[in-house]
Design goal:
Number of helices: 2
CATH topology: GIY-YIG endonuclease
CATH class: Alpha Beta
Number of domains: 1
Number of strands: 4
Strand content: 15-25%
CATH architecture: 3-Layer(aba) Sandwich
Order of helices and strands: EEEHEH
Radius of gyration: 13 Å
Shape: globular
Structural class: alpha+beta
């Protein structure tokens, strides 16, 4: 299942999203195709309830900044990275 909220999906810009299991984020990332990315995560064996889109479509750079910000916020709140993320900082070490 994909929870895309009210966001449109007609262009090639990116969105940020999270995989959710038991109402907790298990992965935070970016994509330009949530449906395809959901299938890829599912096929890779990740266990989650749904993919939730967490931003409107924005530029790749902005999406990566949001991903970094979301990962840092998650780390501050929980003291760890989401279960399936390999890094806790995303693509940017800082944002402006």
């Amino acid at each position: 299942m994909i929870d895309m909220g009210f966001f449109g999906f007609g262009n090639k810009k990116k969105v940020t999203y999270k995989l959710v299991k038991d109402e907790k984020a298990t992965y935070i990332g970016t994509t330009n195709n949530p449906k395809r990315r959901n299938e890829e995560h599912s096929d890779s064996g990740k266990r989650y309830d749904y993919l939730k889109v967490t931003s409107p479509r924005v530029s790749k750079t902005e999406a990566e900044r949001r991903e970094t910000r979301n990962l840092k916020s998650y780390g501050k709140a929980t003291g760890r990275k989401p279960k399936y993320n390999k890094t806790h900082i995303g693509k940017f070490k800082k944002w402006y």
